[in-house]
Amino acid sequence: MPLQGKYEVKLGRSFIEPPPHSFMTMRCDFLPASVDREQPGSIKISNDKEVGVRLPNVPGADQSSTLFKGNIRPVQKECLLIYNKATGELTLERISKAA
């Protein structure tokens, strides 16, 4: 998708009605070279207050995985723009939590 120009954006369900699920962001400033970028990781959310993302490391690394941890907090006035590559549609959704 080009980054210049004017596009039509539709409001997502999070703006129209209370969604059955919510969107959450997690900040990651650094990804160690030992993380295997070809393998899936896992996420664990505890009591809607803490989040942990575990990513497997490449074979031969000192540890088998890398764990990122954070505290979940509510956010206001933050949105996520979702691009559907198949349809070319842009949808704006509210973010309700961040870690």
Structure notes:
This protein is mainly β and 99 residues long. It has one helix at residues 13-16; strands at residues 9-11, 23-25, 42-46, 50-56, 65-71, 73-74, 79-84, 89-98. A hairpin with an 8-residue loop joins β4 (50-56) and β5 (65-71). The longest helix has 4 residues, at 13-16. The mean pLDDT is 89.
Model regions low in confidence, pLDDT < 50 over at least 5 residues: none
For the biggest sheet, the summary is:
5 strands, mixed
Q: Please tally the β strands and state the result.
A: 8
Radius of gyration: 17 Å
Q: Which structural class do you get from the secondary structure elements?
A: mainly beta
Helix and strand sequence: EHEEEEEEE
Strand percentage: 35-45%
- Can you give the mean pLDDT? 89
What is the terminal separation in angstroms? 28 Å
The shape is globular
Report helical residue fraction: under 10%
Alpha plus pi helix count? 1
Name the descriptors:
99 residues, mainly beta, 5-stranded mixed β-sheet, 3-stranded antiparallel β-sheet, 1 helix, 4% helix, globular
What's a quick, concise take on this entry?
This protein has 99 residues and is mainly beta.
Task: Outline the fold blueprint.
Layout: E1 9-11, H1 13-16, E2 23-25, E3 42-46, E4 50-56, E5 65-71, E6 73-74, E7 79-84, E8 89-98
Parallel strand pairs: 1-8, 2-8
Antiparallel strand pairs: 3-4, 4-5, 6-8, 7-8
